Amino acid sequence: MPRAQLHLLPWLSFFFTVSHIIRSSYGDVGTSAQYPPPYLPTACYGGDAGQFPSSNLFAAAGDGIWDNGAACGRQYLVRCISAEQPRTCFLDQNIQVKIVDYVAMANSQPSETGTTMVLSEAAFSTIANSSATLINIEFQQV
Ligand SMILES: *[C@@H]1O[C@H](CO)[C@@H](O)[C@H](O)[C@H]1NC(C)=O
């Protein structure tokens, strides 16, 4: 290998280490509550029952991520990092949720107001004990 390229090796390995660290952590920290059925109609897609992913992992956007409706259809990776009630976070679980609603217009009340996103019961109970009402999350748009 020519000397000029050998000089680049430490920089390359530095670059890959940093990009690996960035990829294995999530973008933002926020809060989540949960909301029960009925989920229809939604602010994004009205009364169409086909809007929900078959996994039932979906969410309503809070004011912070609603983005004037541009949030509709966005997918987020979400995990629980801590909870108001001790030991209710399932720290090893991740979910991918689809935004289908706006919290302020949702058909049912969230377990807590003012959160970043409100998760469907199926989504919430995958990353936290369903008895919890408020959790802290890490989330990233995918
Ligand atoms: C959820 O919490 C309740 C009481 O706080 C506990 O009895 C139950 O075992 C927990 N469930 C899970 C799946 O951790």
Can you describe what's shown?
- It holds the Pfam family DPBB_1.
- This protein has helices at residues 3-6, 9-23, 63-66, 121-127, and strands at 28-35, 58-61, 75-83, 94-102, 117-120, 135-141.
- It has a single domain, classed as Barwin-like endoglucanases (Beta Barrel).
- The protein has a six-stranded mixed barrel.
- The chain is α/β, with parallel strands linked by helices and 142 residues long.
- The protein is 21% helix and 29% strand.
- The structure holds 2-acetamido-2-deoxy-beta-D-glucopyranose.
- Residues 129, 131 line the site of 2-acetamido-2-deoxy-beta-D-glucopyranose.
CATH superfamily: RlpA-like domain
Return the CATH architecture. Answer: Beta Barrel
Into which percentage range does the β-strand content fall?
25-35%
Alpha carbon gap, first and last residue:
39 Å
- Tally of helical segments: 4
Radius of gyration: 19 Å
Signal peptide: 1-27
Domain Expansin-like EG45: 41-142
Organism: Quillaja saponaria
Protein name: EG45-like domain containing protein
Descriptive tags:
21% helix, 29% strand, binds 2-acetamido-2-deoxy-beta-D-glucopyranose, 142 residues, six-stranded mixed beta barrel
List the helices and strands and how they pair.
Elements: H1 3-6, H2 9-23, E1 28-35, E2 58-61, H3 63-66, E3 75-83, E4 94-102, E5 117-120, H4 121-127, E6 135-141
Parallel strand pairs: 1-5, 2-4
Antiparallel strand pairs: 1-6, 2-5, 3-4, 3-6
The structure holds 2-acetamido-2-deoxy-beta-D-glucopyranose.
2-acetamido-2-deoxy-beta-D-glucopyranose binds at residues 129, 131.
